[in-house]
Amino acid sequence: MTEIVILGAGYAGLRTLKELQKSKEDVHITLVDQNTYHFEATDLHEVAAGTQSKEKITYEIKDVVNSEKTTFTQAKVQKIDRDNQKVTLDSGESLSYDYLVVALGFQSESFGIKGVSENALEMVDVDSAVKVHEHIKQMMQQYAATKEENYLKIVVCGAGFTGIELLGSLIEGKKEFAQIAGVSPEKIQIYCVEAVTRLLPMFDEKLADYAVKHLTDWGVQWRTGKPIKEIKPGVVVYQENAETGETKELAAQTIIWTTGVSGSHVIGESGFSERRGRVTVSADLTDPDHKNVYVIGDVSAVMDPETNRPYPTTAQIALKMGTMSAKNILHQLKGEKTEGFTFKSQGSVASIGNTHALGLVGKSAVKGYPASFIKKMIMNKSLLETGGIKEAMAKGRFDLYH
Length: 402
Prior knowledge:
Layout lengths: L1 E6 L3 H12 L4 E7 L3 E3 L4 H6 L8 E3 L9 E5 L2 E5 L4 E4 L4 E3 L2 E4 L3 E3 L7 H4 L6 H21 L6 E5 L3 H21 L7 E6 L10 H13 L2 E5 L3 E5 L2 E5 L7 E5 L2 E4 L3 E3 L1 H5 L9 E2 L5 E2 L2 E6 L4 E2 L1 E2 L4 E2 L4 H19 L13 E5 L5 E5 L2 E5 H27 L7
Parallel strand pairs: 1-2, 1-9, 2-5, 9-21, 11-12, 11-17, 12-13, 19-22
Antiparallel strand pairs: 3-4, 6-7, 7-8, 10-18, 14-15, 15-16, 20-21, 23-24, 25-26, 26-27
C-alpha cells in the first residue's frame, strides 16, 4: 500500500486530502496538523476584532477525514528528511512516506525590526487572533480604571490586504470596545502605520482610494510613507523624514503586526532551497530535488510568467494547488506523466467591515455592498471545497444583508 503524508490542514492540505480520498487507488493517507480543527485564515481579522467568534471560522478536521483511508495525527512537524523519506513530529513519532505533501502554512514576518515579537500582537492563527481580541478588551477595562488615553488607542502596523481588512473589522468592533471602556465609540482611536504611500497595489487607484476614503471617514488615522523602525512596549517608532532619518513615536497600548508573513520555519530547518520559507517549485508543484515531495500553499512559490514574480499566496491559489498535487500524485501512482500547474486568478475581494468591500471579479471592479456579497460567496465556496456541504451549511456566511 502506498503511504501518502500530508503536512498541514489548511486550504491546500485539506483540498489535497479531499481529492485523494475520492480515488480508488490503494493508498493510506496520514494527515498531520498541530490543531484538531481547520480554520478559515481569511477570516482571522474578524476574530481579532471580535466581530466573529472563533467557532464560526473553524471546524473539526475529523469531520472531513475518511477513517477507512486516512489517519489524522495531531502534532507539530519538527523536521522533514527528504533523502530518507521521513517526517519527525514533536511527539517523537517518525512517519515514513512514499509521497509527501508539504502544506505547512505561514508565520508572522518581522523583517528584522527590533521589538516586534516582544511588543506587538501577531495574527497568524485562531489562538493569536483570539489573543488580540482579549487584549483589546483588557485595555478597555484598564482605561475604565485609570482614564489613561493610550488604553483607547489601537495601532495596526501594515496596510496590506490583511491590515486593511482588520481596520474595517476594528471599526465595527468600536461599539463593543467603547462599552467596556465606558466611553462613546468615537473616543476609540484607530491608527495605521505603513511604509508605502500607495495602498492596496493589487487594485487600481480608484478602488484603493475607495477603501482608504471609507476607512478615513470612519475614523482611521493614517501614518503612510512612514517605515516602522522599532516597536517598544506601548510605542511604535516610525521614520518621519527619509532624508534626515528623523523618527517619531506613536504611543498605544494595543499594537497589532500585520506587515507580512513568511512560510513555515520548518522549510528552512529541513534544508529545502527556500526564500522566506517558500520553495520555488517545479512546474508540477514538486520540490525541484525530490519528485515525490509536493510543496503547496503558503510554503510554495509559483512564478507568474507575466510578472516573473511569485503569485501572491491566497486561499484561491492554495485550493487550486491542492487539487493539482492530488491529481499529480495519482498520475505518478499510475506511471503517468504529471501535469504542469497553471493559475488564472478569478479576482480578489477585500472586505472593509461586514457590508462593505472592494475588489476585482475577473476584470470587473466591484465595491460597496455588492462586493461584500461576493466576498461572502467566495468564503462559502472555499468552505465547500475543503469541508464539503455539511461544513458550508454550518459555518457559511449567510449574513448577506447586514
